[in-house]
Specification:
The protein is an alpha+beta fold and 262 residues long. It folds into two domains: 3-108 and 249-261, Roll (Diaminopimelate Epimerase, Chain A, domain 1), CATH 3.10.310; 130-243, Diaminopimelate Epimerase, Chain A, domain 1 (Roll). 19% of the residues lie in helices and 42% in strands. It contains six helices and 17 strands. The chain is globular and about 50 Å long. It starts with a strand and ends with a strand. The mean pLDDT is 96.
Length: 262
């Protein structure tokens, strides 16, 4: 039976910006390899698969290469599609059962706000020089269960990064979050995200990275509510709120394609 599939640009309110994710709506679970093949066919940074259950939806995320434990933009895209297609009422809370536990999402001020676990970086002994890998002045802040976190001096250094993707892909992590303080009043901090080992050289906008960035910049700036910009070629705006051991991640989304997977 054909499965509805959509492409949604997440963390943006206009088409062809933000981070595109595919969202595939299934009536029942499909084999792991089938989902991996679909994700490879879609060739986006993530494809989300949703299966309805008694208490929400089973949600899984795949890059073209691997299944991942946590993905923000494809979760935002999933909630957006459930709301847009009427599978979820505007006042309801989406409940997603995932490899990172229960995640929820609600519509707030026309955006989708997701409730994710905080994933702060812990200090780690650096066995590599991030400046050599990134081709820019940088120092290692730490690592969480998924990614390394690196800070660079300013926006110019952030935008000029040209990573050694081969060296980066050999590190024991999903990817590398690179960040700096913003000098623009509109944003509190900026970031970029590289994950060649997961099949994503540079991710346009990475919601899950803000589970790490939120606690880091919240402590440095003394704030619990922030606005961030991911400075990729497509770019995207992320609202970040701190709530104890949770991080609230908000963004807009727009559907750019609707179809069926045979």
């Amino acid at each position: 039976m054909a499965a509805p599939i959509f492409i949604v640009d997440a963390f943006t309110d206009r088409p062809f910006a933000g981070n595109p994710a595919a969202v595939c709506l299934l009536e029942k679970e499909r084999p792991h390899q089938w989902m991996q093949d679909v994700a490879r066919e879609m060739n986006l940074s993530e494809t989300a698969f949703l299966v309805p259950g008694e208490d929400g939806y089973l949600l899984r995320w795949f890059t073209p290469a691997v299944e991942v434990d946590l993905c923000g933009h494809a979760t935002l895209a999933s909630a957006h599609i459930l709301l847009e297609t009427g599978r979820l009422s505007p006042e309801s809370r989406a409940r997603f059962h995932t490899r990172s536990g229960l995640l929820t999402a609600t519509r707030r001020d026309g955006w989708v706000e997701m409730d994710f676990p905080a994933e702060p970086a812990e200090s780690c002994a650096g066995s590599f020089d991030p400046a050599e890998i990134l081709g820019a002045p940088a120092y290692l802040v730490g690592k969480n269960r998924m990614d390394y976190l690196v800070e660079v001096p300013d926006e110019s250094a952030l935008r000029e990064i040209q990573p050694d993707f081969e060296s980066l892909s050999r590190l024991p992590c999903r990817g590398m979050i690179v960040t700096c303080r913003s000098t623009c009043r509109e944003f509190d901090f900026l970031s970029r995200f590289f994950a060649p080992g997961a099949g994503i050289p540079e991710d346009p906008v990475t919601g899950s990275a803000h589970c790490c960035l939120g606690p880091y910049w919240g402590k440095k700036l003394g704030k619990t509510a922030m606005t961030a910009f991911q400075a990729s070629a497509r770019g995207g705006i992320v609202r970040v709120g701190l709530a104890g051991e949770r991080v609230l991640i908000g963004g807009a989304a727009v559907t750019v394609l609707r179809g069926e997977m045979e």
